[in-house]
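User: Predict the structure for this protein chain, please.
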Amino acid sequence: MSRDLSAAALYADLGLPTGPVVVDLRSEDDCRERPRMIPGALRRTGHEPGTWATLLRRAPIVVYCQHGGDVSHQAARQLSEAGYAARVLEGGIEGWMSAGLATTRLRSDLKAPGGSRWVTRERPKIDRLACPWLIRRFIDPEAQFFYTPSHRVRADAKALGAEPYDITEVTFSHRGARCSFDAFLDEFDLHDPVLDEVAVIVRAADTAALAQSPQAPGLLAISLGLSTNVRDDILLLEQAMPLYDALYAWRKSAAHETHGWPQSPA
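Assistant: Here is the predicted structure, written as structure tokens:
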């Protein structure tokens, strides 16, 4: 079987829990020349993939370099020999971008990707759960999140070396009628059409503009219910992740489906 995977085939599964782990193998020089990444990709060196493969979950792996050349194919071959299901993105990131698919901005100032840290107010409801989901799935899978009392967010941000979000007068926060989720999309220049539609739902639920999205009242109700049932904020985030995974998957591949009763005749 060919190790090459088309950009369209990768995009179909991108961001889904069942999708592959995507690994960016470009050199630092290549990243400086093209400071963009495929959303949700990990950054790893192409040398000795056996030293980092064990950090990945046992899932299919897609590796890419600048043009889908020797660096990617050598890594995929070594991963396959180690028992991983590894494929190479055809054409690398240049082929991905030529296909008009979304990328995200590299932010070395925030260590994103590669272990960014984020802190916000405790007892999250909408934005403070949706933003971590967005970061983990599309910006930095290795990010860490902290929740703290409102009056301590700025001080704890300094102590933790974390970026504050969803509080007043910070970069990653509400901007007029738009919410913090929108700010993350803007700051990382991440403009995928499915994520843009998810953003409409999140914005409407988070800003009490429920008439702007038919799905917003449901998201609000489920989020408030989760917050009521789960008092530990980190556990709440873990339980909210599948909710946003489902919302994204529905909008990406199941929005055309309907459900009704009685059952249609066979």
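The chain has eleven helices and ten strands.
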